[in-house]
Amino acid sequence: MRDYYELLGVDRDATLAEIKRAYRKQAKQYHPDLNPGDDEAEKKFKELTAAYEVLSDEDKRNIYDRYGEEGLKGTMGSGSYTGYGDIFEDLFDIFGGFGSQRRRNPNAPVQGSDIQVGLRISFKEAMQGVEKEVKVQREETCHTCHGKKTENPDSVHTCPTCHGSGSVQTVQNSFMGRVVQNMTCPECRGSGKIIDEPCSTCHGSGKEKVKKTIKVNIPKGVDTGSVISLSGQGNEGINNGPPGNLLIFIEVEQDKDFSRRGNDLYIEIPISYSQAVLGDIIKIPTLNGLEEERIPRGTDSGHVITLKGKGAPVLQREGRFGNLYATLKIHVPKNVSNEEEKLLEELLVIQGKDIEKSSKGLLDRIKDFFD
Ligand SMILES: [Zn+2]
Ligand SMILES: [Zn+2]
Fold first, then answer.
1. CA of 194 to the centre of ligand 1 (A)
2. Ligand that comes closest to the CA of residue 190
3. Are residues 143 and 46 in the same domain?
4. Alpha carbon of 138 to ligand 2 centroid (Å)
5. 110 found inside a domain
6. Does some domain include residue 198?
7. pTM exceeds 0.85
């Protein structure tokens, strides 16, 4: 046998990557499947594989470098020999996997693929539900040939390469044992038929893209990320297989006032300082209009009022709703009227004394701290 390096066409100090690349390139060229009946090619392929098996393994390569092929004979039987596992995987890479091209009966019904579209709706629409129209491009049976792929039935004949099965099989006795490969027939691309005069509309695919406008009922309670599936509204199936589905991915626009987390809604309500001190009845906007709520005397800024069942509708749970949380924020005006100004200044004088009194304890403590 020739020198392994020479065989693969690499230098003696070639890296593993270089060895791999060289092997793949040559293996493709001499693979028995691509050279049927060529004994020379098969012999060469086996030699290449044997060389690669050694040079791609660091230990075996070391032995080969020092003692040549003779040295390896010992290791083959010693138990360190790992078999063809790695090479099998490499070949798998190169040829796309044995049998992976296997096709079922080319006339078997196949379900059509799904169509996916995005749909943006307003917050209000999400809260109330809405009917929308979506535009899709759907694959349907060609209207010219009715899916027969040709207008002239006499121009269709059985593929001579695969005899109508759509796949070709090669059985090969190689160093790896008996390997059966099923590949899509290259002549008819798996259809089992050859068409001399393909349909002028669909060019022999049997399908055409049709623009459709589809009405869809968006149920109340949807949120960004909700997906609505309309079964049977996707692309048409092959060989009378069922159609795919239409998947609508919902995006809900942000509202100016309400924010949302799941089914709960949040809103900020400004109140005045005097309302916070004296208490009052305030109006809180909800999805169903204004709700009156009493706020007690001495309400703090940041106080949260919970309105049970006034949140977002729960998707597909009729009559169920999340909560609405209204956070009260004391509003500090930037400008005030003359009258307000006068009253506030009076208030300032009175409150100044109050604050002095109530902060006396604090000031004393801090004084102690520095003493
Ligand atoms: Zn064929
Ligand atoms: Zn057609």
1. 8
2. 1
3. no
4. 15
5. no
6. yes
7. no
